[in-house]
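#struct-pred

JT: dropping the chains for the assembly here, can someone run the whole complex?
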Amino acid sequence: MNDSAATPAISLSRRQLLLSTAIALVVAALILVIAVLPAEFGIDPTGIGKLAGLTAMAQSEGDTAVPAMHAHPRKARSARIEIHVKPNEQLEYKALLELGEPLLYAWTVEGGPVYFEFHGEPTEGEWPKDYYRSYQIGERSTAEQGSFVAPFTGNHGWYWKNLSSEPATIVLEASGYYSRLGRIE
Amino acid sequence: MHRIAGGIAALLLLATGVAFAHNVDQAAQQYLASNVGAQIVPFAYLGAKHMVTGYDHLLFLVGVIFFLYRLKDVALYVTLFAVGHSTTLLLGVLGGIGVNPFIIDAIIGLSVVYKAFDNLDGFRKLFGFEPEPRLAVLIFGFFHGLGLATKLQELKLADEGLVANMVSFNVGVEIGQFLALGVILIAMNYWRRSASFLRHAASVNVALMAAGFALAGYQLTAYAVA
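RK: done, full complex below.
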């Protein structure tokens, strides 16, 4: 394809070639270290990124779409629930949340471990049949905690499967602006 | 995501731009995830858009056709690339094979380096052999298809019409490829006719190499940080 006999190819000496490659590497490294790493990841070995205000970009990433505060007409709900799980049993436990509403959660397993998938199913709007969105999967877990903001109105929560042949108890603590929290049959 | 605030425009452009390379963008993701059944044209459009806006791929194209003068060779290249990425895209999605997208994008960055180095005749001069360019394009096609397959699987597409949608996405990738190639070819042919072509050919390829290294470094850092 690149028939160098027929096409006027570039003719560099070995020295020029090595030098060219070295220049390309140095330029790439400079661009990465001075601009890309500070701006994208907040990694700033030279300090130039901070001076130029690039590291701030890495920190503010994702902030733009979410307002800092979010007032509510009612108080948040919270609950502490003990869920008894039989050996190898699987179940789903979910919170009904409107689009944009937050949930703080923490759960621990006495016994287990469990396989889990944190996911959500829309309850209104136009969606394909059986659509769900997966947020997090854990192959073997005994505790998870975090915060969550519903990307759409629907039931958001966990599928759990007890991986042990002993009964287990999942202690779920949740608080947030859910209107229902419970087991999905 | 990011907005360029002026200032050190050129560097910033690169820094902000890389983030968009080869992402099937957000709105498209939502669309893909919430579609039902076979949707030929939308998927073809997304495939074409992915190609035309994926500038790491465009850089590779510039490298590949830098010294391709005959249309026959260009057609051969397109075919080989199509065979490569179609194979792994379809097999990947249907077989559930996924590879880390950062690694794939790093490889795509390195493929730009490879092609630019090849244009400089570096392999023959430094190592005494030249890798078969047709094979390289085919292998690059494999990697590219694997990256696409991984991204499409993350969207959890509905099973209904999956194959039809995959095929139309693939056809769209081809169309986008042709469009991008057309523009690059016109620009390259125009440039080739001017006396400056050979004078600047070496430096342009060194710049391509630098861009490829930067892309690969960016993706590898993203992989290490993630």
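JT: nice. Residues 83 and 185 of chain B are 21 Å apart (CA to CA). Chain B has a mean pLDDT of 78.
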